[in-house]
Amino acid sequence: MGWKGILGFDYGVVQGPLGPDVSGPELVAAVANAGAIGILRAPDWEAPDHLRELIRETRALTDKQFGVGIVLSFPHKENLKAVLDEKVAVLQVSWGDFPKELVSEAHRAAVKVIHQVGCIEDANKAKCAGVDAIVVQGHEAGGHVLGQDGLISLLPRVVDLVSDCDIPVIAAGGIVDARGYVAALVLGARGVCLGTRFLATLESFAHPHYKQKLIESDKTEFTNIFGRSRWPGAPQRVLQTPFFNEWRHLPEHENEENQPVIGLSVIHGVPKEVRRFAGTVPNPTTTGNVECMAMYAGEGVGLIKEILPAGEVVKSLVEEAQHIIQHKFSHD
């Protein structure tokens, strides 16, 4: 059964690209060294030289393959060129169309394409474009959420859709442990993609306060109060922090543009002011009122009890999944 590898990697475990820079070289290399698919997050603006530097920093920390995630809603032509020039093993794309011509261009550079989708229509587009794998993101996922469907209903539909071709389907949304991994396999997935679980690791480039909140919290909410101006039409799942609970009914006409600056962050090497309701999560460089910043998390956050090394997360997912399959499903 499918705890085995996909796309040439040892294991079917993917670390989702965590924005804006939370999945940096340390996290991606740690995941890659454990045999899973680590994915860097490209900047949300054109910064090909910086992206090349991130790729090289990651290569200095691992001799294993890894990927880069690009959000298609933002300017990305130069960043995409950098990924293909560097011949990174995997390009993960989301939030937009990635037609056959672009998939073919990636393939000519020996780069495999994973398209993340949130509905059956987008899965069909990805299939027609000839991608190498499809990530199906359920509504349970943390961060910016593509669709309205729950994973347990959407995943088998996409599996059926691609049953006539050999495109592995990867499940995402609320999965944090081996039980979720095995459940996804039973539904027909060949791998799983985890975001929040890898956010809560030693190597993730999230602010310590944010990591601590992941351990303490068990409630999330689907909302759109963060980053309305920067990224309209991209609702998100966040932790129910005291700040969020106070402002959850923010009027629709309000956004971050006219809000006070509550902190400063260096993001992908660029100093940036963080306004109230900006969709920017705090990283270790962040100063100011961290408690009032966006903190994304998926519905599985209540299962996360400690900050672990990323390699240990991969190892326990794989070993415990094998154990469940052998002991729960192998006996009549």
From TrEMBL:
InterPro entries: Aldolase_TIM, NMO. This is Nitronate monooxygenase domain-containing protein. One of its GO terms (molecular function) is nitronate monooxygenase activity. It comes from Musa troglodytarum. Keywords: Flavoprotein, FMN, Oxidoreductase.
